[in-house]
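Question (not urgent): is this output format expected?
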Amino acid sequence: MLAWKGLWKKEWRLSISFHVFVFMLETIILGLSYWRLYQYDEGIMLGIVILLIGAHIWYLPGCLLYSLNKEARLLHVFLHSPRSIHMLMSTKLLNALLFMFVSLSILSTIGVMLFLNVFNGEISVSQLATIISFSGIHLVGASLYFSTFIFFLWTLHHYLKSYVGKWSLLIVIGTFIGAPILYGWFGMQPLYEMMTQWGAISIDLQSYVQTFQLGGLSAEFATGDVPVVYVGYYVIDFVIFLMLYVIATYLLDRKVEV
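Got this back:
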């Protein structure tokens, strides 16, 4: 436990600059938006808050990459640490998750207040709670998923660098672009549908239509039929998540040389 606390303090020092930068950027964007746009319509402010919340899908990957790049300055120390690679990575992810949660909590509170004003009670508190919970879980899950992908690419870069030098960066960029394209192609195949479309779960969101003014323009917000999600999608994504993490930790722990 003492060893983990030591790693936590070290990670705090490594990543605090990233967190401060993100919080300052959010404050500036919200401040400028309130100053220039809030007087016209709360709907515009709500849209900006929603965009900021959605941008948090890159909070964990960004923080992890920032921290790993700082570790790379003394990579031999990082690789020869007596602590397991899993303990080292857990402190990085938990540190990023903590600050991400704080940031999302602040933005979500602002968003809820604006949402209730814009929709003027048309959405019940229970429905709003369902939307927030459903969106929040998927946002954090997707952020963790992308973090693992970034971790895999970072490890792949340092592994290949020993063999192909600077060409490793080109390979990593190609993988970063090519992997999502390949996954998207696979997602359109009948086999993928067969593997994922099982375990249907219905989300209890009633259909409704709400019209409101957005910066002088009439906008319509509507929900259609009750959405359905499949457990199979989560299982496949979790398997890919584990595969990327296992490969990355194996390469970093056993194969990367400095």
